[in-house]
Write a structure and sequence with these properties.
Blueprint (H helix, E strand, L loop, with lengths): L2 H12 L2 E3 L11 E3 L1 H20 L4 E3 L9 H6 L1 H4 L1 E6 L6 E3 H14 L3 H15 L4 H11 L16 E4 L3 E3 L9 E3 L5 H5 L2 H8 L5 E10 L14 E11 L4 H18 L7 E5 L9 E9 L2 E12 L1 H10 L5 E3 L4 E3 L2 E8 H12 E6 L2 E6 L10 E5 L6 H13 L4 E3 L5 H11 L3 E5 L1 H6 L1 E6 L5 E5 L3 H11 L6
Parallel strand pairs: 3-9, 19-20, 19-21
Antiparallel strand pairs: 1-2, 4-5, 4-6, 7-8, 9-10, 10-16, 11-12, 12-13, 13-16, 14-15, 17-18, 21-22, 22-23
Helix pairs in contact: 2-12, 5-6, 5-7, 6-7
Amino acid sequence: MSDLDKIVSLCKRRGFIFPSSEIYGGLSAVYDYGPLGVELKRNVRESWWQEMVYRHDNIEGVDAAILMHPTTWKASGHVDAFSDPLIDDKASGMRYRADQLIEGHIARLTKKGKDADAERVQQALVAALHADDMNQALYDLIIAEEIRAPDSGAFDWTEVRQFNLMFDTHIGPIHNAENKIYLRPETAQGIFVNFLNVQQTSRQQIPFGIAQIGKAFRNEIVARQFIFRMREFEQMEMQYFVKPGAQMDAYADWKEKRLAWHQSLGIPAHKLRFHEHEKLAHYADAAVDIQYEFGIGWQEVEGIHSRTDFDLGNHQEFAGKKLEYFDPQAQERYVPYVVETSVGLDRTILMLLSEAYREEEVSGAKRTVMRFHPKVAPIKAAVFPLVKRDGMPDIARAIEQDLRLHFNAFYDEKGSVGKRYRRMDEAGTPFGITVDGDTLEDGTVTVRDRDSLEQVRIPKDNVVRFIEDRMRSWTPPED
């Protein structure tokens, strides 16, 4: 069983993530977050919002609607250009992204030590992505390299064709072309159309940013690897508006800031890297991904893009309304350029799950432990009475209630203390507090550290401060 399979199993068993509509057989590439998962997700959201909005006095927040005027997506280019190059394996009926098939082939060549061949195919891929007929160029490269289908092993492909990823629906009682709207495929456009609303009401001067967390929807045909690629997902995006010509400095600054945020979640530096885009999107003059080394290889968790004035300029043209900024210092008007940071919340969750998952042997017994950074751990502390008598449950309950005034805590009195520790290890709970006989004598409790397994005795009245201090000073344990 692969590590990803083990993580999927643990997520279902412990209540992190469930298949959506499971009692009806599930819905492909759609997932529900359970009690532990929703806490993990909430903690990551709050960390991002704290980092982006509260730490910057020139970044404001919005919460734009999912449904937008359909011309929004014509202006943004999504109606005409938001598509993936897909190819079908005739033998199995499986569908793949053509560019990712070639990237997988390159990765296999590199793994075999065939660096020269890998570089040759890489250059051919870049040329194909920039070709006038990209679909034909990708198909020709797949055929020339004799790339076989990953699942069936067959070499019998359809032609490459483009597939638009937007979900469409209709507004009102009549379903016709005039009432057609889309579920947003990204949250960024809700920021752009509100640019002047936010700038004027907040009285911000450029440079300034607008941040948003929200759901987006993409009709992914190739949707695999658990929550890595889903049809309904959540984005955390910030659009940073700058004077034309200043975008590259802002771009470089946000690259480093965003990489540092991922490391602040407990991700080691050697598991993160920048990956420059081989082909820029139609709106960008620079783009880079922050990638994490998953068990399935290096994959994107966040994109940083210099989007020029494409979005504001197009919305200005299509809406027929000025979206210019008046610079009071320079006494001039201009359409700002934009630097975007866009991180997938669900992909970040999968990154944290992947990084946290460990199987260890402790005192001859196997334990599964999720080594989350305490600030994102779903439950910060669990409180146990050693036995269910002598007033221990009452003391433990009082400690739990005190902890809950500060962060999420859990009470458990069922089973041996060892089994209770193991249950909380699987949930990723960094601290366990045990009330025992000594507590009745001297008012102290045992605090057990999830990672080091160290146990210390402290006064029960100091538990909150002790845990808060440990959370602030936490560093990822070495394997």
